[in-house]
């Protein structure tokens, strides 16, 4: 019984297994070409080609599609499979192939010339691989080719002239290769082009005027292509353009004032980092679909008169590093008013634009989604409007490098999402509002170089993410609150220098175990340097100069092994210069104008005259000869210790 059952099962299996034969009823050439393809794959981490075996018809292999009737391979779609290998010339035998999609794998070697035999090929996508060599001239024989996507490879040489024979081409995507030889004018002959995307190639040359013949062009991106000259005006005739980027080139000249009216469908416009001059075209007001406007780092000048009120989808505006202000007109930032209906705005960068007015109150009407606002390095003056507290979506706010006066608005405490706040280099006065302690997400706070008075608010101790705090160069007084020294998050920078802080340095400073830079120079701090400072073992720079510290440098500082710069100058420190300093890998140490006594060490940093200073310590001796100090007299004290005086 068991035997019978077994036989039955075997027979059944045998009968249902597909017949294995050398003929597939299709084209054996296709079969052989696919086997060659597989044989060149050296790594297939997910077993994508496991089904490419003799018990399965090749038309059913993973990623392969055949025509229903003729059973010839029409599509190979193996995108993002982690395949490593090269592409064999045999692929050129798949004469019915319409699509070859190998995007995002690790194919290397050259793109075989034999692909030129694929006269039915419409889609060739080899992007995001490691193909090298040139773009084969023979591809020009693929007369039905619509999409040529070779971005993200290591292709060299120039775009072959013969490509212009491909009269059906709609997509040319060659970004991020090493192509040279300019963007060839003959490409203008391919009137079908809709997407031309070649950013990140060292092409050189200029943008050819002939590209203005691409009446169907929707996307044009040629950023970082080392292009110079001006943008030919014919490009602005391409009224279907939705995406236009020539960022990071060396383009000169000005933009046509009617540009925005000529390109009404623009969604992104990226011309950052060129040498463009003239007005930013006011007609951009007409680009009602615009989402991204990047005109930063150019020489644009004249008043910015874009009316943003119709640009309902805009989410990023970069105009930084231009000369947009400074015309002495009170309304040079009137465009801010028009931004109030842009409810998707997330980024507004107006850094270094030469604006010279008071910040309009309407800044507070900007989108609740506004996350990044940079107004730094202009000449904005007057009070900061209270309305700034309405921008509750802000994560980054830069107001530094202006001439703001008055107080820091207490409404700043409403910006609960703020991670970075900089107001350095203004003329802000009054107290630092306690409300900064409400900014629980704060990572960096820079209020340096203002006229801020009073004490450092202990509420800053609530900011448990704070890793950089700079309050230097203000008029702050009283003790350093222990609460800020107890913030383990302070890992990067604590600068309280150039104030009038007094009292001793709290021993809690030893809690700053991860801090890299501690700068307390130019205050009235007094008392001993706390030995707990030796716990700050991440310190790279320690500046305690120009205070009233006295006593000795504590031996505990011998644990600060990573410190590269030490400044103890202009205090009342005494005792010997600690021997352990010789072992530190210091770039410099300043011990000048204290009252150190005894022997100057000779090793480590003390062996290089340009790296240390001991001036103004009248009781030192020894050191290396050029210092001209008296020799140390070694006195054997009663207790047996050697002492140098
Ligand atoms: C052949 O492919 C089929 C389908 O993926 C699979 O089930 C089978 O295990 C494969 N055979 C071999 C020998 O790899
Ligand atoms: C392998 O397959 C898994 C699950 O389908 C997927 O998450 C992973 O990204 C694949 N890896 C590669 C290299 O294709
Ligand atoms: C590329 O493929 C890998 C799997 O090999 C996948 O994890 C990754 O997400 C893909 N990248 C893109 C951009 O599709
Ligand atoms: C297919 O292509 C390869 C290489 O291009 C060639 O050697 C082979 O003879 C071609 N024909 C067949 C039927 O495989
Ligand atoms: C199979 O394809 C090859 C190459 O395209 C061609 O030379 C050959 O005639 C085809 N054979 C059949 C039976 O279709
Ligand atoms: C081929 O690759 C692209 C990415 O380049 C992908 O978006 C597309 O869906 C793939 N094509 C097919 C037919 O699956
Ligand atoms: C490349 O194209 C030339 C000219 O059409 C042709 O003679 C040559 O055979 C092609 N090379 C391959 C490998 O198909
Ligand atoms: C473009 O095509 C015209 C004819 O259509 C031809 O005369 C001209 O030489 C071509 N230009 C280039 C640069 O190939
Ligand atoms: C823009 O197109 C118009 C109408 O087709 C044409 O008259 C004009 O010469 C074109 N301008 C440029 C700079 O190509
Ligand atoms: C573009 O501007 C940069 C920086 O101002 C300058 O160094 C460069 O020479 C300028 N290039 C041209 C082509 O004007
Ligand atoms: C917007 O387009 C209209 C119609 O083409 C035009 O009259 C107007 O001047 C344009 N606006 C700007 C600011 O250029
Ligand atoms: C802007 O929004 C206000 C309502 O918040 C509306 O009254 C006004 O018409 C809008 N302006 C434009 C130009 O859409």
* Estimated helix fraction: under 10%
Coarse morphology: globular
From the 3D coordinates, which CATH architecture of one domain would you assign?
Alpha-Beta Horseshoe
* Cofactors, ions and other ligands in the entry: 2-acetamido-2-deoxy-beta-D-glucopyranose
Main pleated sheet: 24 strands, mixed
What is the CATH top level name of one domain? Alpha Beta
CATH topology category name of one domain: Leucine-rich repeat, LRR (right-handed beta-alpha superhelix)
Radius of gyration: 35 Å
| CATH homology-level superfamily of one domain | Ribonuclease Inhibitor
What is the mean predicted local confidence, pLDDT? 92
Number of strands: 46
From the helix content, strand content and strand pairing, which structural class follows? mainly beta
Please report the number of helical segments. 5
Share of residues in strands: 15-25%
EC number: 2.7.11.1
Main location: membrane
Protein name: non-specific serine/threonine protein kinase
GO cellular component, one term: plasma membrane
